[in-house]
Amino acid sequence: MCLIEVKNSPKPVVACTINAKSFFENSGTIYTNSLLVKKARENILEFLLLNHPLDCPVCDQGGDCDLQDQALFFGFLKKRFYNFKRVVTDKNLGPVVKTVMTRCIHCTRCVRFATEIAGVEDLGMFGRGLHSEIGTYVEKVFQSELSGNIIDLCPVGALTVKSYPFVGRNWELKIAYSSDYSDGFGLPIQLFLKNNKIVKILPGLLKHRVITNWISDKARFAFDSMFSPLKQLTPVSLQSFKQQIETTWDQLFERVTKIFYFQDHLTKHARSMYNLVVTFTNCLNLETLGLLTMLTNQFPFITLRTLETSFDNIDINSTHLLTNQIIDKHFNNVTLCFLIGLNTRFEGSSLNLKLRQRYLQGNFFIYSINSLIDYTFPIKYWGLNFDTLKKISEGIHPFCKHFVNRISSVIYNSDLFKRKDAHSLNLILNTFKTKVHNVRRSNLSLNTLNTSINTAGINYINKFKTLEVSDLKYFTGLYLMSPQFKSLTQLLNLKLLNYFELPHRFSKILLKARYGFSEENVSRQLNILKSLSTYVNLPTKTVFETRNTIFNTEGFFKINKSVLLTKTNAESDWSIVRNILQVLTNISHITESTIFNLNLPETFQSFIDYCHFMFYAIIKFYNYSLNLHKPFDYFLTLTKFKIKKTKFYKTNIKLWLDDFYLHGNDFFSQYSITMIKCSKMLRSDLTNFVLFN
């Protein structure tokens, strides 16, 4: 439709493929809305509609179709072709994308996206003339974590959503805005609602980025797990001595209040202390964590424990955040990127897209210490364990010369600090950074990619201890907030080892927050845990039904509002803790703004002009001293003290995420039907064994 008329030209010219400067020098006159241009556009549209089916009433793209709009403004009202239309066989691109290839107009947008953006050259056009088709050459699926984006790119109804066909038109849907909870970036998304239900999710707008927002399939299709029909049938239940009793929130709060008063009295007058252990994951929002911190300060018998290993040092930004060198436009100046134990394609798809775009610009080298992984761009490997990293920090590896001659950036996964030698790893990275600075006199950027949505926010509030066996030897209650299947499996193992033994005169209570997705597998794991004297099941709201604040891995605050109304008897984590705190402390009014109110804009980053004076309290490095260079940055200098030996394991780096669709740190994707189908497709393509149904 970009045909124009040029003076002294025998025919219309395609504007997007011809240099305009040459035409201005020769003729100097261009017509964009002349009679010749209008007739040419009518002929083009008539040609596009030659084999296009007339099924707009049953097409999912109806009302949002570019071909419909252009036919309305530029089309011809009469039809002059009466031959049979061409029929094209539909292609199987996987459990996400539905194809109706008779509607395809061969714009090749999906082919260009697969080749240029996703880096998976599975789609292409084969055949010539009337026999041209878009497909996968051979019978295979479109295997990419970004495959759902081609649905938005298709101008017609050839590529639509396979999971939810015929659900509604655009004029029937309401738009709300939220964040993606599947990874640590929290990218903005658009929620399309109908009858208080999410119909589809599309990418949102990025204010602080130059690149386009491409969301993953997990962010786009995993929302079906949050709205299981079992959510409508699960009330607030209390199981005592193997008898399940339905109760109300008021009765439950009254019971919990009595337990708190009883435990507080025992703590003040008894010698031994039996704690109430409150566990949470890195997906917990900042408002709820602020209330829990107030509760623990008020009552010493309440202990906060995280189910994930915390960082060794949280006083520096680079230990749990991506620095400005990766986020800002300065990334175009980086010429070398060093990845340590990181699969950016699955753990941070937006970062992987940024690395690929920088590679396509040229003068960019990527090295990795990891297993062989398809990053969608060429990469050179330097080993499988940290022995290579140790040699690089000592300056005896051939790779060291590349850091001296180039502007470098090091990116590693936050899950590396779950290793037992995490402290040694931190020292090696900081020593390496200092030596590069002493040689080149430039700052080597150390970056941490968090795989959970609020890991950085939790580490900014405080350094919480990890749940250990000693915490469960003497406890009177266990409160699981946002539990995950792997954390419940860990508790099951502790139960089998008889770590839940207590004197019979103390009651043991287990409170578990239950979200709206299906939890049959979790319930099976909790059957043994229900041998506790009291088991309380708390139906909890989903993330789209509550207002929450998170702090993503880039250092940006994300404030998300409630977009869905709750029709069930579910409460948010913040409301549950707030009600308990109001009863116990006699606080008449608590709002989210009074608990967590930093008055920060959305793009506030790194607490500008705020210095951490706790640098001087970290003298436990023994062989290093800290010199303040600028806020939130430091350089290590060698001292005259003796070097303390630390354990360092030369074991291979383990990739914690072997299944992108089911094994993330989010708490809902593993229960999604669409994600289960995608995982089955992924496993059937990558395994050497036959998948039996």
Automatic annotation (TrEMBL):
Record-linked InterPro entries: Mopterin_OxRdtase, Mopterin_OxRdtase_4Fe-4S_dom, NADH_UbQ_OxRdtase_75kDa_su_CS, NADH_UbQ_OxRdtase_ferredoxin, NADH_UbQ_OxRdtase_Gsu_4Fe4S-bd, Prok_molybdopt-oxidoreductase
Identification of the protein by name: NADH dehydrogenase subunit 11
UniProt domain 4Fe-4S His(Cys)3-ligated-type: residue ranges: 36-75
GO terms, biological process: ATP synthesis coupled electron transport
Alphabetical list of SMART domains matching this protein: NADH-G_4Fe-4S_3
Cofactor (UniProt): [4Fe-4S] cluster; [2Fe-2S] cluster
UniProt record similarity statement: Belongs to the complex I 75 kDa subunit family.
Domain 4Fe-4S Mo/W bis-MGD-type: 173-230
Keywords, comma-separated and alphabetical: 4Fe-4S, Iron, Iron-sulfur, Metal-binding, Mitochondrion, NAD, Translocase
Domain of life from the UniProt record: Eukaryota
